[in-house]
């Protein structure tokens, strides 16, 4: 596994830049590094075509002047559009070294947006928003430098609701949270990192690296690979989906604890009826999942409490997250994983009286309040135990289908039964889930997604 790449807040990025300056790298040199790195990408994309660089008043605009001058020296037809004069010394210096054309408007093949960077926290003024949209409409290809102007660096929120999609976003120095968060994420197109050689604060969050999984040891048997138990409920299909996913994600043995008949269940799935408290006393159970298909009635609550009372490593998903009470986890010692989608995360925030303003803040607060590892799933998966924070590459949008969350929960409990580490289990599960979706192609069902986990596992070995 490669090392995780840091994902910084705007404040952490400023601190990292300050450290470089303290080590003797001037702000001018840092801007030159950033401009050169970005210019290499733009030069290749332009392939001799004309380029327009939209420069703002701050250091992001200064980067734009550097990019424009490098492209001009390489015989690219460059026009700078600068609606505001530079307001920092380094940006003024960069503009003074640019020897090309500065205009109020332009048409061309490639637009480079250097209007605003990570420091923007308020909506774009109407005139600048209109200019940005006009330029985007008169260019075939658009590149954002660091972030699209109008996206909040820390939350991914859109500060301008009229933003249009870019083809490429070049992150300068380090990833920012917005590069991996909705709703800004889909506007960025491809994302690439331009290194600047900076030190990163030790508290930084990170982008999850692609994991390398392993085959079982030669002497393994079904119990050494882990027995994963899924607690079923009134809606049988979801529990079967989760069970099928768990069977293919590495656990050696999967049991479905259910009082219902399951005619569509795979032949290899053991379905065990009977008193749930008694069946969960089996010491060989390494991890449990409850929630998919559980229901929300009194019987569902009884089954949830029985599962909580077993005090085994536990994944809570779907209905279990809605039924869960604020104090239900208080007496447990075994690790717990919560896997909410956006609606379930909102319900858990009400249960635990959390008032975070965005997904990351809510997930971290929930992890701290509950003592659980939280995988806040969706188009932007966020994983946290309150201290550590992971972001993930964007998965296939075809995962937006009923049952895909049940499949993910099944993968998580399978990995938890194998390794026992809840954070690692979630991280590997997100990758397996995304890889299975990629292998399935377009328009798959949740059942096809579960069937695709084996091939996803093979690609991660």
CATH class of the largest domain: Alpha Beta
Helix % is 25-40%
Biggest sheet strand line-up: 8-1-10-19-18-17-16-15-14-11-12-13
Q: Helical segment tally? A: 15
CATH superfamily of the largest domain: Ribokinase
Total domains: 2
Give the N-to-C terminal Cα separation: 11 Å
CATH topology of the largest domain: UDP-N-acetylmuramoyl-L-alanine:D-glutamate ligase
Alpha-beta content class: alpha/beta
Unreliably modeled segments:
none
CATH architecture descriptor of the largest domain: 3-Layer(aba) Sandwich
Approximately how much beta-strand content do the residues carry?
15-25%
Number of strands: 19
Radius of gyration: 25 Å
Tell me what the structure shows.
This protein has 461 residues and is of the alpha/beta class. The chain folds into two domains: 181 residues, YjeF N-terminal domain (Rossmann fold), CATH 3.40.50; 233 residues, Ribokinase (UDP-N-acetylmuramoyl-L-alanine:D-glutamate ligase, 3-Layer(aba) Sandwich), CATH 3.40.1190.20. The chain is built from 15 helices and 19 strands. A twelve-stranded mixed beta sheet has the order 8-1-10-19-18-17-16-15-14-11-12-13, with helices on both faces. The radius of gyration is 25 Å and the shape is elongated. The model has no long low-confidence stretch (mean pLDDT 95).
